[in-house]
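Much of our argument rests on the idea that a fold can be written as discrete symbols. In the encoding step, the backbone of a single protein was reduced to a row of integers, each denoting a local shape. We regard such an encoding as a compact summary of how the chain folds. The record that follows shows the chain in one-letter code together with its fold in token form:
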Amino acid sequence: PTLLGYQRVFKDERIWIGYQNTLLYTICGTLPGVCANLMAGYAFSRNDLPGRNLLMGIFVFTMYFGGGLIPFYMVVKTLNLTNTRLLMVLLGSVSVYNIIIVRSFFKSTLPVELQEAAFIDGCTNQRFFFSIALPLSKAIIAVIALYCAVGYWNAYFNALIFITETDKKPLQV
């Protein structure tokens, strides 16, 4: 047995460009993904959100039924996101599955009495979310950060379809 195969693979600069891009997409995409999923999950956990059942139904519907690859490609092309790094960050940022997990966490963990007490003291929804809900939610933040990071690290399909420049392709492609 020799390590000649590894030596030859690691001499190719495309491997290092792929690692660099994958790390960039993972690091730059995880923070916005966690923020978006946490805010949406908190909003859907609130009973005073008007139309939350309808909106959640629409979200779940999109989880099971997609619009198709050709319309999706046309939307991305119309927005001039093909061959951009921003595409890789934006497309993986929001996940309905993660939103459902966060919503369930907030519904089961934050008691209504805590919200009522905060609102009696003059707390707004935004302040309650940032000052009370987030500090009590370190476990779900870690879980969603892990899910987002693994999702970005393993993402290859969007890059395969939308990115043609070699210097922007992640390692998986």
In short: The chain has a mean pLDDT of 91. The first helix runs from residue 4 to 11.
